[in-house]
Write the structure tokens for this entry.
Amino acid sequence: MAIFERRYHQCNENLDDTIVISCIIETAQEVNGHTEYLLRLQRGPLKENCWRLLKRYNDFVTLHKNFIKSGIPLSLPGKRLFGNMRPDFIAERRQALQQYINDILMNPILASSLPAKRFVDPDTYSQSFHDQAVQNALLCLRHDNLWNLGTSLGAIGWRLRKHYFKVTHKPPDSKASNKLVKSSSQTHSQSKHFLASNASNNGSGSGSGSMFSTSIDLNKLEGCELVLEWSEYGPDKYIEEKELTGIFKSVTSLQHPHIESVIYAAHNESGCLTIRKFHKQGSLKDILCMATPKNTFLSKYGNPKGRTALSMKQVANYGKQILDALIFLHSKGFPYGHLHSGNVVIIDDCVKLLDIENYILGVPAFYRPFFVQHSKIHTPEAIDVYCFGHVLFEMAQGYPLQESVVRQISECPESLKNLLESILSRDACRTCLPTLEQLLNHTFFEQHAAGHSQLTNVDDTLKPHFKLTLNAKEMIKQAVQKAESRLRDEQKSVKNQKRIVRVQELMSSEEEKRKTKQKAKLEHKQSKLKQQASLQANNGRISLIATVSGSVPEHADVASGATAGSSSNIIFQRCDTTGATLADTSPDHREPMFKSPPPTPSAYQRSKEASNHNQFAQQHSPGQSTSLANVERQSSTPNIATSDDHHGGHGNDVNEDNGLEKNRSALLESICKFNRGSLRKVRSND
């Protein structure tokens, strides 16, 4: 079909999966005895990133079955066996399916799931991400003899391109040294440790990579469950492969009481692999939703069976520890940018942050669809502050904030309310957010958080340590600038799209519809009045010509019977409805108004009337005198008036007849050529 020729193509590599996809069911058509619906889909605010798909009703049914385990109520229209090809039924089902797909795409949990992505964009998400993750993980581990890749943990996270596997470390060879080594280039140590040094297998092939490990006592790993995480690079990955080697070396050596350490890290041209401890109690989000950590993301957080909020003391203590970790990372020139309740674990009332390597991998943040709507939130610190506000809100209320700004905060202390409003209110997002240091010094933490001496579970022996080389800091700084530039461009596009939507809503509002309707009625009325006025003007001209031509013989008779010295003045009067009428100056002698004017007399009729008039004039006595109105024609403003009196004797009958005939001809000619717009009323002076 022609509509599918210009299909939108975007490279699947480094695609931002957090960009919102909209769907509109344009029409329905019958194909081979069944109905197919034409879907128009668009990624982000740009209309160039759009494509079209044909879907059957069974495709919606299959999608619905994948979401049953989430527990989210969705209203899929029912199936009908008979009458399902009627136009009225198809139109009704089309509207119901539109509402169904809107409910899915507006829900952040459902919209980010793999079934929803494959439904709206099958070309991009039809590949098997799990199989690719297994292959890359095995390729990264094949040069190392320390780890055994176990079974997959399933889709326990929200990212489509991140996968979790069980992993176990191999026991050392009894014949070999009692020291675990990473490669032949490493030296032996004095105890059973993973060496802090690294070995790099520099190569750009798919089977080569760089591996790093941190110095952790193997005795501490006994009985601990480990998890291997494979993550693909994201759209904001701006650091070269050779530079990542030094940065990962620093990441594996990072130590902080509120940051979970990375035991092992490796990367290749496709992504990064990390190994860290798996905590059975789950993340902070699992605690708030009372969920089992190893369940799938949809079943855990789609519609939780229960929710619980933390006490104000816990909120203050956990919030303060999170701020301590964020301030430490920013002081070292390393942004975090991926704070949310799923990346926070609580171990004996001690907070630990996860996935600190995400920023250098360039993967999109969890709250990116929210802060992309606010142009003032674009720096790494502002992003961390904004995300901290969402985590604080979720800990205090027991449920996540589903909007980019908070509208109403209830059931919390005034100090916490002020703190949340300083971060998540509409005014704060429009102007400027506070810094991390300002948040740490807020009165809420002074009132509810315990002092450092009261935190007995904090490991004071683990001194904060994180050292980046100057070259690594410079590379990270450049990557931050490029990521910020991409974020700004996306925020501008979203802002322009919002402006367009507001204009469209304003134009389609009921008030605008009413005003447009009134304006159309007024224009129609004015057009109708103009047509009536034009028609009346044409009728008035015809009426005036007919009135004057029909009244001349009658006035001539009256004038011949009048006494000498008498005068007869003819007046043209303008009328709004019929144009103009001809009337005598005498109040008792008025010419009637003609509604249906007679046609203009022909030349033969005019000559005949002139002959009859001459015969009538010869029969009268010489003493009688006649008067006739003289009509004068002017080129610019023609006025028609009669004010001349004619007195004649018996000896002037012939001259009078000739003059009367000439005056009559001049009158008729002037009537045929007169300008109605220049008519004015003239009164005689008796």
Q: What stands out?
A: The longest strand covers residues 21-31. The CA atoms of residues 71 and 303 lie 5 Å apart.
